[in-house]
Amino acid sequence: MADTTLMSIPGQVDPVPVARDITPREDGRVDLIGLPKDRIRELFEEAGLDQKQAKLRAKQVFHWLYHRGVTDFEAMTDIAKTMRPWLAERFFIGRPDVVEAQHSTDGTRKWLLRTSDGHEFEMVFIPDADRGTLCVSSQVGCTLNCRFCHTGTMRLVRNLTPGEIVGQVMLARDALGEWPKGNMKFDFGADLDVEEDSAEYTSDGRLLTNIVMMGMGEPLYNFDNVKGALKLVMDGDGLALSKRRITLSTSGVVPMMDRCGEEIGVNLAVSLHAVTKEIRDEIVPLNKKYGIEELLEACAAYPGASNARRITFEYVMLKDKNDTDEHARELVRLIKHYKLPAKVNLIPFNPWPGATYECSTPERVKRFSEIVFEHGISAPVRTPRGRDIDAACGQLKTAAEKKSRAQRDREAAEAAQS
Ligand code: SAH
Ligand code: SF4
């Protein structure tokens, strides 16, 4: 069952925080994925273990869940054989359901996933020569309606839970076969299987090396759940990915940016996309609430930003909208004015059916990039990936949502009849 309630779409800019609590599944068991070690310990105590036992078991189980990726209590070889069924009766190790997995000709992979209460969302894996990036969703849909973004047109919006967010990374590791084997360093007593797991784990040659919170949704409108999930990803005894390899992208939720730096500490990407109020108001309506100056001041104050850890400014190239030489020069001026340790990422607009914009010409994108670069700011053009499977930036919108209204009505009528 869901452990959040549905969000109604709350107008363009106001998020609706959704309290999370643990809701047992229909079979009464509690899904442990998404929970931190302390919460697991509390649950073990509530289920009847004494304090010391609960603490030890929570430590062991946590390691098996998040570091080793096991999905069956029977595989937890340092836990007594008699204890394993006790755990399995009460607890569960979940993953989002995979509805469909697609492979692009360029190696990009996209998964359509489903929450336990039936909402669909997507994640994308983008392999490169020297890295592999997982693009993770934070919400089903998005409340913000940026005019060039397909996700922003989705009708249903619900925050993903910490388990559904970290579950994406875990599922990717499952699919890529990348869980470390490693040795357990616990004191093994009698009644335990200790022979397996002798292979040492190294991170060399891993496929999944980076995470970007750039899938569906606005991560800073689901702050607590994103934070909870990323803590598990960054925990050395959890998924153990460095905060330097994680980037959170925001459309500019200014009041949450400082907390993002302080409490999560990951790299920041900001979807700027325009340098004048008039244009940004149009294409990123959140700008009416938090304007460009406020946004750039928050960037200048972002905890942890430095020349070694620059803030990425994303800039989608829209023909005859935001792509002139003057816009490029104004972008440079703003970055210098606010003394921002910045790099710019130019994103060719990825069209979708019904979109009202076109992508700038390649010559225009090149010229824009050169102007920014001539002023000493790196401004690479992002190569669109996975276009043949609709996996490129801003194209994420689930298959169900892509169906026409007529088709949905037809299906609903058929379902009602049967
Ligand atoms: N909500 C967050 C993160 C998800 S969007 C944000 O807006 O930053 C990830 C990136 O894709 C953003 O920079 C977004 O502006 C960009 N994007 C959205 N639609 C796009 C499209 N159709 N073509 C290219 N980039 C797009
Ligand atoms: Fe939401 Fe980001 Fe798309 Fe804007 S660009 S609608 S904030 S997902």
Topology summary:
Layout: E1 30-31, H1 37-46, H2 51-67, H3 83-90, E2 91-92, E3 97-103, E4 109-114, E5 120-127, E6 132-135, E7 139-140, E8 158-159, H4 162-176, E9 210-213, H5 223-234, E10 246-250, H6 254-264, E11 267-271, H7 277-283, H8 292-300, E12 311-317, H9 325-337, E13 342-348, H10 362-374, H11 399-402, H12 405-417
Parallel strand pairs: 1-2, 6-9, 9-10, 10-11, 11-12, 12-13
Antiparallel strand pairs: 3-4, 4-5, 5-6, 7-8
Descriptive overview:
With about 425 residues, the protein is an alpha/beta fold. About 30% of the residues lie in helices and about 15% in strands. The protein contains twelve helices and 13 strands. A nine-stranded mixed beta sheet has the order 3-4-5-6-9-10-11-12-13, covered by helices on one side. β3 and β4 form a beta hairpin. The longest helix is centred in the first third of the chain and has 17 residues. It is globular. Bound molecules: S-adenosyl-L-homocysteine and iron/sulfur cluster. The site of iron/sulfur cluster has 11 residues, from loops.
Class from helix and strand fractions: alpha/beta
Number of helices: 12
Profile the largest sheet: 9 strands, mixed
Q: Taking all residues together, what is the mean pLDDT? A: 88
Tally of strands: 13
User: What is the element string, with H for helices and E for strands?
Assistant: EHHHEEEEEEEHEHEHEHHEHEHHH
Précis, in short:
The chain starts with 29 loop residues before the first strand and ends with a helix. Helix content is 32%, strand content 15%. It is built from twelve helices and 13 strands.
